[in-house]
Amino acid sequence: MERCVAALSSNSNKQNVKVRRSQSHIPNDLSFSILSKLPIKSFKRFGCVRKSWSLLLDNPYFMTMYRYHFVTKDHSYYDDTSLLLHQILTPWGLHPGCDRYPHDDTFELYSVSGSSFENKVKLDWPNIKLKPGYYRAGVKYERGFRLLGSGSVHGTLYMVCAHNGNFILWNPSTKESKLIPPSPFDSEPNWRFCVIHRGFGYDSVRDDYKVICYGKVSRNCYGVFTEEANCGSYLWEIYSVRRNCWRKLDVDMHNKHDSCNHQQLYVDGLSHWMCFGETCQERYMLSFDWSNEIFLTTLIPPAPISNINGRLEDFWGMKQLFLLNGSIAFIVSYKETGTFHISILGELGVKESWTKIFIVGPFPCLEYPIGAGKKGDMLFRKKDGKFAWFDLNTQTIIEEFGVITQMLGCQITIHKENLLPFEGKSI
Predict the structure, then answer these.
(1) Is the pLDDT of residue 376 over 70?
(2) Which of 23, 224, 230, 411 could be a cystine partner for 86, CB 3.0 to 4.6 Å?
(3) Domain segments of the chain: what residues?
(4) What is the value of pTM for the model shown?
(5) Long-range CB pairs of 282-287, under 8 A, 24+ apart, other chains included
(6) Rounded CA gap, 150 and 272, in Å?
(7) Are 324 and 342 in contact (CB under 8 A)?
(8) Phi, psi dihedrals of residue 310, rounded to the nearest 5°
(9) Counting beta carbons within 10 angstroms of the beta carbon of residue 388, is it exposed (0 to 12), middle (13 to 18) or buried (19 or more)?
(10) Average pLDDT in the 228-257 region?
(11) Which pLDDT tens digit goes with each residue over 58-70?
(12) Quick one: pLDDT at residue 17?
C-alpha cells in the first residue's frame, strides 16, 4: 500500500513539473514580438535570461522584425518638428573650408517639405552687423552662417557667423536672436583663446541655454602669440544666457579633445561629439550633461573590414554620428562599394553597448549620408552631386531629385517649434 501511495505521489510531482515547465514556456513568435520592440539596452539585458535570446542578433528573421520596429516607432523628439536644409555654395567648385575669402561663399537656409523638397521656403538670416574691419565691397552685414548640430535645441539654432567669427542664437519661429559676447580671454588684447571645440545646449533644471567652448590659451609676447605652460594650456569655458556671463568650467579633463567635424548631437539634455583618439583610426564620443555640467566618454569600436560578395574592403571614407529615430547612431561609410554600417548606442560610457543593426548596400551611386529625417529615412548625397532619400526599412532608394549640392556643403537640421523667449519662465 505504501509503495502505491509513493508511486502516485511521484507521478503527481512529475506532472506538476511538466505543468510548470509548460506554463513558463514562451513561444518564439511571442518572445520575438516582445523583444523586437525593446530599446537596445533593455534587449541586451534579456540576453542573460535565455542563451537563445543572447544569439538573436544573428537571427535574420528576428533582426528584420527589430529593424522594422526601430525605424517605424514614434519618438517624441520629432513632435512638432520641421526639416531645415542648409547649403553653402562655393565658387570655382572648391570645398567649403578651402583657403579662400569667405565673402565669396553663398549661404542658403530653407524650410523644406515633400519627398523631393518641392516645398521650399527661404528663411531670412538675423541682421547682424559686421565689424568695420570686416567690410568688403560695401557689405556691412553678415551674409551667412554655419549651423552647429543636427537639430535645434528647444527651437533654438546655434550659428557661427561665416565672416567674422561671431556666434548667434536664433529661434526661426519667433525670429528672436542673441549675439554671444566674447569670453574674457577673447576680450583681453594680450591673450588669445584659440577655440577647438564648441557646443550648445539647454539646462532644464535652471531653464537656461548655455554655450561651452574648449580651446588653447596663448599669450601675446611682442606681437607673437606663444603658449604659456602656466596659463592652463587647454581650457573649458561655459556661457549662461540667463546670467549673460562666461566662467571657467572646472572639470577633471586632462586629455586633448579634438572634435572630428565640429558637429554635435543634442538629445535629452546632453550634447555629444565624436573626437579623435590616439591613432588616426580611433574615435570616441564625448558627452556633456548641461544640467550637472559633467563629461562622459564612450569609446567607439574600430571600423570593421567590409565583406560584400566576397570582396574585402578596408575602411576608407567617413565616420559620422547621427541621431536616428531618437537614438545615437555611428555610421561608417565605405566609399568603394557604397556600403554603410550603422550601429546604435545602447548605454552611455559602455563601448560594448554599440550594436550594429543595419548594413546598407552596396549602392555604388551613393557617396555619403547628409542626415536623417523621421522614421528611418536618410538623406544621401549621390556621386553625381544630387540628393537621394533612402528608406532603411526597405533598404531602397525611395526618391531621387535634382537638387545639386557641393561636397561637404550641405546639412539638414531638425527644427522643433518653440514660441518661448530665450530667458524662458521665471525660476
Answers:
(1) yes
(2) 411
(3) 30-73, 128-144+160-249
(4) 0.81
(5) 283/319, 285/321, 285/328, 285/330, 285/345, 286/257, 286/259, 287/348
(6) 11
(7) yes
(8) 80, 5
(9) buried
(10) 76
(11) 888 888 888 998 9
(12) 44
Residue 392, SS3 per DSSP: coil
Three cell numbers, residue 374 = 523621421
Q: Which residue type does 197 have? A: H
Q: Which of 41, 43, 132, 146 is nearest to 87 (CA)?
A: 146
d(CA 31, CA 53): 9
Measured CA to CA, the distance from residue 328 to residue 265 in angstroms comes to 8
R_g (Cα) of the chain, nearest Å: 26
Q: Could you tell me the strand order of the sheet in which 270-276 lies?
A: 265-267, 270-276, 283-289, 294-300
- Cell triple for 315: 575602411
- All cell numbers assigned to 1: 500500500
pLDDT in tens, 102-142: 556 778 888 887 766 777 888 887 776 655 555 555 555 55
Hey, which residues does 389 pair with through a beta bridge? 379, 399
C-beta of residue 119 within 8 angstroms of C-beta of residue 146: no
Give dist(CA 189, CA 43) in Å, integer: 55
